[in-house]
Amino acid sequence: MQGLMMDYPLTIDRILEHANRIYPRKKISTKLPDGSMHRYTYANLYGRVKRLANVLDKLGVEPGDRVGTFAWNNYQHLELYYAIPGSGAVIHTLNIRLFPEQLAYVVNHAEDKVVFIDATLLPLFEKVADEIESVQHYVLFNTDAGVETKLPNVSLYEDLMAEASDDYNWRVTDENTAMGLCYTSGTTGDPKGTLYSHRSMYLHTMGANQANVLALTERDVVLPVVPMFHAMAWGLPYSCAFAGAEMILPGPHLQPAALAEMIAEEKVTVPAGVPTIWMMLYQELQENPRDVSHIRVLTVGGAAMPRALIESYEKELDVSVLHAWGMTELSPIGTVSQLQTHHLALPEHEQWDVKERQGYPVAGVEMRIVNEAGEEVSWDGITMGEVQVRGPWIAKGYYKLDASPDHFTPDGWFRTGDVATISEDAYMHITDRTKDLVKSGGEWISSVVLENGLMAHPKVMEAAVIAIPDERWGERPMAVAVLVPEAGAVTTEELNSYLAAKFAKFWLPDKIAFVDEIPKTSVGKFDKKVLRHRYAEGQLG
Fold this sequence. Notes:
Blueprint: H1 12-22, E1 27-31, E2 37-41, H2 42-58, E3 66-70, H3 75-86, E4 90-93, H4 100-110, E5 112-118, H5 122-126, E6 137-141, E7 154-156, H6 157-163, E8 178-183, E9 193-197, H7 198-208, E10 221-224, H8 236-243, E11 246-249, H9 256-265, E12 270-273, H10 275-287, E13 298-300, H11 307-316, E14 321-326, E15 333-337, H12 348-356, E16 360-361, E17 366-370, E18 385-390, E19 414-422, E20 428-433, E21 438-440, E22 443-445, H13 447-455, E23 460-470, E24 474-483, H14 492-499, E25 511-514, H15 528-536
Parallel strand pairs: 1-11, 3-4, 3-5, 4-8, 5-6, 6-7, 10-11, 10-12, 12-13, 13-14, 24-25
Antiparallel strand pairs: 1-2, 8-9, 14-15, 15-16, 17-18, 18-19, 19-20, 21-22, 23-24
């Protein structure tokens, strides 16, 4: 029997229409390259998005075309987030931190027709200009008419906007139409593209805004430090408009002092970013205290937040931390870790143990863990397995690639490559990536757990663990550590003595290399591929 509900397509333009009608006076603020603040409202955003959609038509963009963006988090990028999907095209957010050959690869693989570029990033894009095959037009913003560039067919954003009408009828009527394209960071080969539909992103927006997830409301002021080129900024540009939350967009100002000032001056309630950012912010706040009392929840994802850092924020700064987990293929939110009622009776240190986990699946995401034989294993908090997920905003394949059993199971689950346990009360705790586990004498050692143990030491700022070959045991763990400023001399023996109170002896790293900086991927994770290469080349001792 057919249902009796309206056929109402879940398309991104509906989110913007809602924000304009219900929250027209709510503000969107951007810190411009010169340090000044640009401010306007959702009503202003609405009119400019319609102008921009007409600009896209003038540039020859047709439904289904891919349109690239190469930009910081700013109001122009936000306008593109709505105008491109609203015109029926696909927004392809280009990662500004990709190596040049990877950047050229993703532009050509996506066959971008137009690319919008923040002029402050022009030198980065010009490095690959001669390798680009498909782009017909380049549009620059945050610059004036005097800009010089080797790019062909260049227009200026505001010139095009000034000539365009704000009368536009949205083109999308099918919610299953593609709206966004994000590529993985390519740490194990060429980047792979995940194509989002209007329906998947609309449902992801509803999922993220659940009361047990981000719970955004019109009272919130959100600071997306997570880049808009990384997994659609975790969907925040859509979640904020959906809820009427105000946005503070930091532009290129990602230094700890600048972020601390924005949080204090703009009374930010929900900052969102990766652990590295919050580690540097914590150090800044220790040295130069600011008012962070308006923060309702510090949202962290992209990598595991060290337990010691969670404890420091909550105990010393009275800032609640929300640990989240997701992936580009999940749009990206999969789990969040908030305390439930039954946790409130636990001692404080056990509550932080819970918050250290990646948390429970948000409603809309199904999850299981599977052993090496492909068998589903128990949620007992002990048994490890690969995390597999499915749901309405989770990818079922990669753009222009045939589905592979390495990534997707025959019964329709996405294989994340993360290894985890799940507790009886549904809290996932990631122990490693499948490729990063250390197998020593037939026993598994979790690099992530060992890293967190090292970073709990007061003299260690960052630590990464890799497997190195060993004739006797097959593999042994090696750590690479960055010490806190003015930590003084620290030895391998001192750190292993500290670890010995928490870990079995065979877990302790045979070697610890002390470095000034640990290499990171384009999305801020430890780049263990580079560390393994440096070890093989004899650069890590």
